[in-house]
Amino acid sequence: MKEFDGTTAENDPDSYREIETKHPKQLYLLFFTEMWERFSFYGMKALLLAYMVTQLKFDEPKGYAILGSYAALVYTMPMFGGMLADRFLGYRKSILFGGILMVIGHLTLAIPQNWSFFYGMAFIICGNGFFKPNISSLVGTLYKNNDPRKDSAFSIFYMGINLGAMIGGVLCGYVGQRVNWHFGFGLAGLFMILGLVVFYMGKKGLGDKGLPPHTESLNKKIFAGLSRETIIYICTLLSIPFIVLLFHEYGAMDYIMLGLGVLSLIYILYIAFKLEREAKFKLLAAIVMIVMSILFWAFYEQSSGSLNLFSIRNVDMNVFGIDLPPLSVNNFLPPFWVIALSPVFAWLWLWLSKKGKEPSTPLKFALSFIFLGVGFYIFYLGCKFSSNGLISLFSFAMGYVAIICGELCISPIGLSMVTKLAPIKIVGMVMGIWFLASAIGEFLAGKIGSLMSVPEAVVNDAVRSLPYYADILNKIGLGSIVLGVLLVCLVPFLRRWMKDIH
């Protein structure tokens, strides 16, 4: 097995020492590429659970299980896509190949046939595996080592993600719910094409960043006259039927996610303990935060599952006599608040950094859980004081404000944390494991969401359906705050492991 030398972004001799505030123009190329890709991804995701429950007539536990399996696979594949990019393809080829697969997936979902639903999702899963980790890793290559602009850059990049998610959630949610479900899926595909065009036209400006690490190895003929690159593409396509089978046998995902989680943890620990002391403890600190992020996403991702149905059944969507479409509203609020608050957080981290008072990465993670818990507890209080089974749209929106503050303390910071703490030669793989943690969280989110399943007899009775949501919302809120306090207690230990990286 290949040895790793332990070099990280912060002990490289060319480390960046001067504080600058201007970002390179290539950041904005990646910003717009990711924005349109996230339009397509979240626009489609906004429709999934409601489509399964209302159109395919799946019962709610089955719908949650399939949604959880889909989300888990979407965030599992980046681990493999990141590894293949690190060793063979490079970031650029991975992004283009992944984008093409996602276009095929979205357009397949637009076909009004029974077979198209699972096959469309399978193409999107594989495409996302190549696209998602590598565009994030490519952002990290734009900055010299130990550059204090990294957290700010990832906050800006994250704003692009959510701008696309907001527009996609609103437009695809509206078209799907009010016009035609398959038109909504097709609209997502058109904007995925736009994202690919933006990247392809602007990739020359990236210079030598993101190219294959060893072109000769990639082009080498290794089987039946086929190059290693071609075999990677063929094997990816051959995995599509297997993923479709998993959707039909979704119970197997319990064992798959457990196995992947355990194996990836063992492997990354094996690598960590082969490194020199300083690099080892930096990677161990990253592992602790990655593992904790699983629970954050398990709670947070109710927004695309149970809270979609909650918004339909138990949120008062009437504003000045106008009934707003619940799916559009629920999928508009999270990215809207991210867009509104991202510039504030990007400025805040730089301002605090200049004063030497920026919270450490572990403390930001702890704050993310506390904010998240406050948000869910606001939802619960809205339920507690409801007299007609509906909570106000104001309470719903304010709950999301706190939740998004939590998201901004963990998601862009986590992306930046990986590029800082992981050894340079395995950044893509560790980024993939970061997304695998999200995958396990997404899978657990489906399990938690199923606890809020509402019996068919009361789905149209707001007063009787509300208690099914209120109890779990309360438990999520309190549990998240407790986890945040626990992380605060671990901050001193993690800071010592991270040494000079805060």
Topology at a glance:
Elements: H1 26-54, H2 60-109, H3 114-140, H4 149-179, H5 181-202, H6 215-219, E1 221-223, E2 226-227, H7 228-248, H8 253-272, H9 277-300, H10 306-314, E3 318-319, E4 322-323, H11 326-354, H12 361-384, H13 393-408, H14 411-421, H15 427-450, H16 462-498
Antiparallel strand pairs: 1-2, 3-4
Please explain how this structure is put together:
- By secondary structure, the chain is an all-alpha fold.
- It has a single domain, classed as Growth Hormone, Chain: A.
- About 75% of the residues lie in helices and about 0% in strands.
- It has helices spanning about 25-55, 60-110, 115-140, 150-180, 180-200, 215-220, 230-250, 255-270, 275-300, 305-315, 325-355, 360-385, 395-410, 410-420, 425-450, 460-500, and strands spanning about 220-225, 225, 320, 320-325.
- The strands form two sheets. Strands 1-2 form a two-stranded antiparallel ribbon. The chain has a two-stranded antiparallel sheet with strand order 3-4.
- Helix 1 runs antiparallel to helix 5 (about 180-200) and helix 14 runs antiparallel to helix 15.
Number of domains: 1
Rounded radius of gyration (Å):
22 Å
Which regions are unreliable across 5 or more consecutive residues at pLDDT < 50?
A: 1-19
Which structural class should the secondary elements be placed in? mainly alpha
Helical proportion, percent range: over 70%
Q: How many β-strand stretches? A: 4
Order of H and E elements: HHHHHHEEHHHHEEHHHHHH
The largest sheet is: 2 strands, antiparallel
